[in-house]
Amino acid sequence: MELTSESFGLSLAEELIYRFKMAALKRAVILPFKKEENERALLNERAEQFMKKYGNQVLRMAYAYVHNMDEAEDILQETLIKILEVRLETDNEEYIKAYFLRTASNIAKNHISANKRHETDELNEELVAEEKTDLSFVWEAVKSLPDTQRDVIHLFYEEGYQTAEIADILGRKEATVRSDLKRAREKLKVILKEVYDFG
Asked: Which domains are present in the chain?
């Protein structure tokens, strides 16, 4: 199911762009007001373009880590700010997309490390409203995997990347990605069978 702004309530994309601008102003990512207005407008335009192109995928990846929509939105916002601070000098969309996902993955891991929470995680009701089957138990199983394996599972099954593409995104060797994918599948099979009597 494709996640859109409507999936998460009224005009999520606009809200996130607004939140980005407010946070960016505080962190001086937006140029000082003494600078030319068109320079600030250009930066805001880039932020909006990035959000429209990659925001949905980054949000999905963030949610796959933290299972909390508010925190996933924060990760998306931090990712966008980080990308604009770096000021990527390339028009290669695949490279930019991979950089976004890798940055979001690192930020999400930092959130998990900082929080050290052991809450009972639930899939957001809005994410599964149109699904015929409740797959929350699968998310629970995936969340128990090591970070490296969770990354690969998400990118392979949720985003549809091939192992060579995943290797580029994560900066790993393809053989390592294939190995992680195989081990993750084996672990999931054991977990789902033993804990949930599935499969």
From this structure: 1-121 (no CATH), 135-199 (1.10.10.10)
User: Are 79 and 103 contacting, i.e. CB atoms less than 8 angstroms apart?
Assistant: yes
Q: Which of 72, 161, 159 is nearest to 123 (CA)?
A: 72
Q: What is the pLDDT of residues 10-61, one digit of tens each?
A: 345 555 655 555 554 444 444 444 455 666 677 778 778 888 888 888 888 8
State pTM to two decimals: 0.51
128-176 pLDDT, tens per residue?
Answer: 444 434 455 677 777 788 888 888 888 887 777 888 888 888 888 999 9
* Structure tokens belonging to residue 136: 């929350």
User: How many CB atoms are closer than 10 A to CB 93?
Assistant: 10
Residues in Cβ contact with 11 at an 8 Å cutoff, skipping those fewer than 6 apart: 5
Q: How far apart are CA 70 and CA 179, in angstroms?
A: 33
CA distances from 172 to 151, 162, 178 (A): 12, 13, 10
Q: What is the 3-state secondary structure (H, E, C) of 83-115?
A: HHHHCCCCCCHHHHHHHHHHHHHHHHHHHHHHH
CA separation for the pair 163, 170 (Å, rounded): 10
- Say if residues 19 and 11 touch (Cβ distance below 8 Å): no
